[in-house]
Amino acid sequence: MPDHIHILVGMRPDITLSDLVRDIKANSSLFINEKRWVTGKFSWQEGFGVFSYSHSQLGSVVNYIRSHDEHHSRKTFRDEYLEMLSKFNVEYDPKYVFNWIDE
Fold this sequence. Notes:
Blueprint: H1 17-35, H2 58-66, H3 68-74, H4 77-87
């Protein structure tokens, strides 16, 4: 998708989410820039969203990620993300929720 990625990760409890995301962003930015896949310098915006699921939901999450192209033809990333915040009862201030590409 042009405005986000889905990553499914199993983690050890001694690794923090912020360290994991920092490393993913740093290494992927370096790789993309070395390959010159974009005009100018590629960088991720600040922040990230993380949602956890139980092992019993693993198949559903994998299926969702595999079909995300189809899914996003019906629902925008913004709508999906705000819906997930609501579903997971996450309180948030809209001014801190991403810089949407279409704005």
